[in-house]
Structures are given as C-alpha cells and as structure tokens.
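Researcher: I've been going back and forth with a colleague about how GntR family transcriptional regulator might be arranged in three dimensions. Neither of us has a model we trust, so I'd like an independent prediction. The organism is Shewanella jiangmenensis, in case that matters for your notes. Sequence below.
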Amino acid sequence: MIQLGKTCRLAVVKQVSFGVYLNAGDYGQVLLPNKFVPAGTEVGQELTVFLYLDSEDTPIATTQKPLAEVGEFASLKVVSISGVGAFLDWGLDKDLLLPFAEQKRPAEEGKYQLVYVHINRADERIVASGKLDKFLDKTPARYRQGDEVSLVIGGRTELGYKAIVNNSHWGLIHHSDVFKPLRTGLKLKGFIKQLRHDGKIDLVLNKGTKDELDAHAIHILKKLNAAGGFLPLCDKTDADVIYAELGMSKKAFKKSIGGLFKQGKLRIEDDGLYLS
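Model: Here is an independent structure prediction for GntR family transcriptional regulator. You can compare it with whatever you and your colleague have in mind.
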C-alpha cells in the first residue's frame, strides 16, 4: 500500500530533464529529483523511495532515508524555531515541523525532542508531536512473558527507564535490569518480563538464557585472570560500577558469580571476587 510518510517501491513511468516521475497510485505521478535518481535508471524500473510533501505541499519522492516514518517515535534534533513551531532534522532536505501546540515542553534549538511522526488530518501535512500519550494504545496489552519486542527509550525515572513497546504501550526497565547506557530515543530490542495486575509492563533487555549466562561467566573469569585473580566486586556493589567494569547488569552478574561459586571456580568475599 502506498502511503504518504512511508517508504515504498514505485515504478518509473517517465524521464524528464530534472528527474523521473514515479507511479504513486492515488497520489498520481510524483517527481524524484535528479540528485536522487540512481545512475542507469530506466522507465519501468522500480525504486525504493520515501514519499513526503515538498515546500508547496506537493507529494514528492526521495531516496534519502528519514530517521522516522509516519507512525514511529524518534528523538530528533531541533534545528530552528519559527513563528509556527520548531523544525526538526529527520534526515531529509526539508525539516519536520513540531508545532507549538504539539510541544509537551518548549523546544530549544540544538536540543533533542522525542516525538511521534504523524499526518495532521486538518491539512494532511506530515508533522511531529511531543505529546506522546495521545498516540499510544490505551487498551490492555496482550503480550506474553518472554515475547521479543521493539523498544524506544522514553526517559529515566526513579524506578528505571520508561520505554515505548512496539510503538504502542509504555513499559518500564527497572534499574536492576539495565546493563548498558540508555538514552532517550534509543531504539533497541527487549523482552516482556511480566504484565502486572495494574496493567503496567515490566521489561528486560535480555532473557537471561543459559547461553547468555555462560558468556557472562566466561567474561568474569577472563577479567579475574587479567586482574591477577581479584576483582573488587560483589553482590553489594552498585549496578553502575558493575556495568562499567564488566558490561553486564547486576542481575546477570549475581547469577553468573553464583554459578561460578557452585562450580568452585571463584570465592565470594566481602571485599570482592577471588579466583579459586
């Protein structure tokens, strides 16, 4: 289906001096300007392009890849402020408008804003909104424990990091399950840890499978050997310190050292870990 604000495959129907025209279905023939036309393009050939509106609100195609398409969330840089709102760099020659009415907090030039890209039904223009909750699903989530999901980090809280799950629901990664630096707008995969009775979703960034735990254990042993048989880390060490030293979450660390202790490969003392 051909949609404005989406990447699609369109056939070349006509070549002109300033580009080629593509068959965009209900949008008619849309121009792909010369600077985006791949060398050797011929009539009848299909090209992968992104459809959006030019400065005169006419549908146009580009081979540039946007940082977010319609229906997606992304952290975009504010490049300028005008009388109608802020303009965001979304990877195309024409910047994306974030209207004042759609700003949850005032945009600042040079800063990043987490926004949702959508089509404003009043004028059919592609715009951004910082009022994210308007575009999230209010119905109860139907995920199952262990489901793999796509995440967009929405910011840090006292409990952990908020994340948008599959572009649909808010979820939370607790601090104890964070094992690498996270920033607002970061896109990554995760897993459903549990659906709570109040409808909230807990998330993890890995499943804690045997293969993952084995890899963590091997890494810990290598670090111990490299450090002469001692690391000043234990189950009371702060999670940030463990990540900085080993690149894993505190939960994964505790499981791994527990397994290594049972195998007799290390000792766990109050001041840290010792190779046996």
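Researcher: What would you highlight for our discussion?
Model: I'd start with this: The first strand starts at residue 7 and ends at 16. After that, consider the following. The chain has a mean pLDDT of 91.
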